[in-house]
Write a structure and sequence with these properties.
The chain has 188 residues and is α+β, with helices and mostly antiparallel strands. The protein has helices spanning 2-26, 30-35, 51-65, and strands at residues 116-123, 126-132, 138-141, 146-147, 151-156, 160-168, 174-182. A hairpin with a 5-residue loop joins strand 6 (160-168) and strand 7.
Length: 188
């Protein structure tokens, strides 16, 4: 309780000190004060202010410094709150991976970077690619086979395999990217 009273007294002393210092520095010089009568209004060239306007300005300043400001209230109609951060944390409930969280089978166990393209064959039924994992085990893939968690073999050309991978953006939009697996020539 004593602390609050002391704090309030300090605020009042600071406000009075600021007001007095403003009165000293803002008050008109004695030579110009003689020229101004009590009925004069502010002269834009010389800066002379009437006594009534000056005393009203000092009263307004004192009210402001004491925290008894005017009747101004901020209206938020159609405006954002200026004290709220622009960016907010968003908790994402869903997984960002479009693949159902089940057990991966077959070629879904391998991501494109884990496989090496060994050969590409053009057959009557379409192109077929031979790939090898890091242990040296070989696999045969064709267009339409699922590869990795979210990839599908889109196209097999004479020297590369194109995999279309789908992913979910944080905004919720589904996107895709094309990953190339290139057949390297002997010696590369």
């Amino acid at each position: 309780m004593v602390h609050l009273k002391l704090q309030h007294m300090v605020k009042q002393c600071v406000a009075i000190g600021i007001a007095l210092s403003l009165m000293i520095f803002v008050s008109p010089l004695p030579s110009t004060a003689k020229k101004a009568s009590s009925e004069e209004v502010k002269d834009t060239e010389t800066g002379v202010v009437s006594e009534e306007e000056y005393s009203q300005n000092v009263k307004d300043l004192m009210h402001f410094l004491e925290g008894r400001g005017g009747d101004y209230t901020y209206r938020r109609d159609g405006r954002s709150d200026p004290f709220m951060p622009f960016l907010r944390e968003k908790i994402v409930d869903q997984e960002l991976d479009p693949v159902a969280s089940g057990e991966l089978v077959g070629m879904q166990k391998f991501e494109p970077g884990q496989l090496l393209v060994v050969g590409i064959i053009q057959s009557a039924s379409g192109p077929i690619a031979m790939v090898q994992d890091s242990t040296g085990k070989g696999y045969i893939i064709a267009p339409g086979i699922k590869l990795g968690r979210s990839g599908i073999v889109d196209e097999i050309t004479e020297n590369m395999i194109l995999i279309k991978q789908q992913y979910l953006m944080t905004s919720g939009a589904m996107r895709h990217r094309m990953v190339k697996m290139i057949l390297k020539n002997e010696g590369e």
